[in-house]
Each structure stands twice: as structure tokens, then as C-alpha cells.
């Protein structure tokens, strides 16, 4: 190459590169669609790179650093947070995508956005909000009519609510992401056509179809990252011993492959790292090889000769074309069961989960019984979205009636409170709990109550 004739690698160059580099079953950036949002041209970045950047600069993404994965991060320096988990999913996803000639930018954007709707306190937070909305929490009294109409909670659906509605950086609600990224965020875990959740914009999600292969790549990368880093965090925390892990069949396969490098290593911490790295490598390599075989089979069966032929066949592709082989999936299931038994169900984690349940239940109860304890932005949303009087301007003597007649009868208000709780980080939720339930004379209010 003659470098004195170098041209800037702008969007046009990058899109042309994709046309040469991507397989017919990949989604090129030129096919990106933004439903309901005007798409202004960017001179440098293709569409999925822009989505990635919008996600990275969102407030919801920044809050992931203070959200628990399994072990409470503020007690030690090294446990994963929801943010570090997200970065590990993106890394594994890009490796798989590159090997399968998929669109790495699309995979990265989906991976970075897939957990934006996750609650504080890990999966326990998700469970608590789901139980509250179902009317199953005795401390909170919701009418049967509200329960029937409010819908449920699931983090992948709420992630869409975050990117489509709750994030505010532009003159329109949400981040204005492409449909392909939105679909991948929703479908990184289970979904259905008739799931009882108030999606702000169901357009462009192809709910009846399997996800595109970039989205399937994020789903399997999420599984790999979650199990391997939960195992590493559990070993570091002392929830399990290395010799117990070595008894697993997946560990035996990895150890056999490492040979003398592992057997001759006396330092426990290095043996542990070798084992975790070996598991990640085994899982990622297996997914690539098995998925490549599946994609070749699908290409032959449906005659994927170009992008048009793939689009026509998309409704018939399987939900797990990018996945483990049967043999390795069996080993993965054994590992997952081991992690649940000894790490997820460890007394330390159970104590964290109990505290999380207590905190979130108490916060919902306080906000529900006395909505004036909510930040003003939530009450302003009730005014703007539900057409309620702004509660701070209601005469004090009429507040109780207003709350009883309007707020407590509204499924929409329940969802606003859940939106507020779901957006909290662990740290913010704990500070709110202390402020409302354990006040002290010199206590300030987290984030203010504007």
C-alpha cells in the first residue's frame, strides 16, 4: 500500500469493507433500520457503531458499575459487577462473531446494551420486582385490578424500556437504537410474542422469529461469561475449593488438554487461572466450530447465496443456531448446576439476597404508600404520562384522596415506581433505604429530591 495516498476510513469505506468481509447470514450496517426515529447520516461511523456509542454514553450504562453480579462488589475490589460482566460478554461475543463472519459492531452494541435493564442486587432484584407486580408480596397491597393490568418484570424486556423510553439524551424518548440492536437486546434471553410487559415500541422486534445470528452470539457469550466468571469469583471468595471444581468433568477435560503445564504447577492461584482460562477457551472454541457447521448446513438447506436469500429464510432459522455442541453443552449444564449449588446458593450470597429483598420491598412500600417520598422527576412523569395532577402542587388536605383515587388505582403508576427502582444501583438503593427507614439528624438525600 502506498501510504502517501491514504484516505480516511470513513463510513463509506467501512460499509464497503463489510460487503466484502461478512457472510451472507450476517447483517451489514447498510441494512440497519431505526423505527420512528429520524436517522441523520454520520460521516465516520456505520449505524451499529453509533448504537454502541450511544449505549456507552448513556446513564444506564454508567450505573452498571454499581450493580451486583453475584457477590457484592463494594466489600472487595475484585468481584464482577454488572458492568465488568457486560464487557466480558462483548469480548467473547466479538471473538465468536469474527470467526463466523458476523457483524462484530452489531454484536458489540447488543452485548453492551443487553443488561441495561437489570436491577440492583443481581437476579434477586429482578425476582422481587416480579413478585411485587404479581401481588405476591404481603408488605405491599395492590388491588387485583392493578395486578391484572400492570404486567410483570423481566430484565431483557426492561432493557428495551430503558433504551426506547427511559434514557433521555435527545429530543425524543430513548436512545433511538436500530431495530437489529433492539431485537438482540430483547432476545439475549427468553422471550415470547405475548409476554405481559409494556414495551414502549414493539415495532421491528420480529417477536415471532428467532433472533438474527449476531443476537444469538450475544446470548451464548452471555452464558459463557456468566458461568465462568461466577466460578472464578466463587473460588476467590472461598465459596468452593479448587479441588472440588477439579472433580467436574469439564475441569477434567481442560486439565487433560493443559497436560504438564497444569499438573506441574504448584501455585494454587495460577492453577485456578489456568483452569478458568481453559474453560473459556473450550466453550468459545466449541461454539465457533459447532455454529460454523450449523451455518453451513443452513446455508445449504436454504441456499444462502446472498443477503436477499437469507432474509427470505430468516423466519425458519432455529433459535439456537449459534450454540454449543451436544457434548460440550452437557458439560456446561453440569458446571451451571455446580455453580448454583455451591456459589449462588452459598450462605454469603443468600444473606446478600435477603438484604436485597428487604431493601427493595421497603422502598416500594414507602413510594407506594406515600408517593411524595419519590423524587420529583417520577411525579412529573406521572403528570406528563398519566395526566395526573403534579402531587407537589396538590393541597395537603387533598393528597390522601388523590393518592387513593388516582395513584393507587393506576397500573401506570405502579410501572413508574418499578422503573425508578429498577434503575437504582445497589449503592443508591441502600442509601435510599437508610434515608427512609433509618434516618439520622445529619442525613442527606441521595441524588436530591428535585
Could you characterize the architecture of this molecule?
The structure is a single chain. α7 packs across α20 (411-423). The mean pLDDT is 92. With 450 residues, this protein is mainly α. Among the domains are: 232-345, no CATH class; 348-437, no CATH class. It starts with 10 loop residues before the first helix and ends in a 13-residue tail after the last helix. The protein is 60% helix and 0% strand. It has 21 helices and no strands. The protein has helices at 11-21, 47-56, 59-63, 82-99, 104-113, 122-133, 144-150, 155-166, 179-186, 213-237, 242-246, 249-258, 260-263, 268-302, 307-313, 326-344, 347-369, 376-386, 396-407, 411-423, 426-437. The longest helix has 35 residues, at 268-302.
Protein traits:
mainly alpha, 450 residues
Topology:
Layout: H1 11-21, H2 47-56, H3 59-63, H4 82-99, H5 104-113, H6 122-133, H7 144-150, H8 155-166, H9 179-186, H10 213-237, H11 242-246, H12 249-258, H13 260-263, H14 268-302, H15 307-313, H16 326-344, H17 347-369, H18 376-386, H19 396-407, H20 411-423, H21 426-437
Helix pairs in contact: 2-5, 4-5, 4-10, 4-14, 5-9, 5-10, 6-17, 6-20, 7-20, 9-10, 10-14, 10-16, 12-14, 17-20, 17-21, 18-20
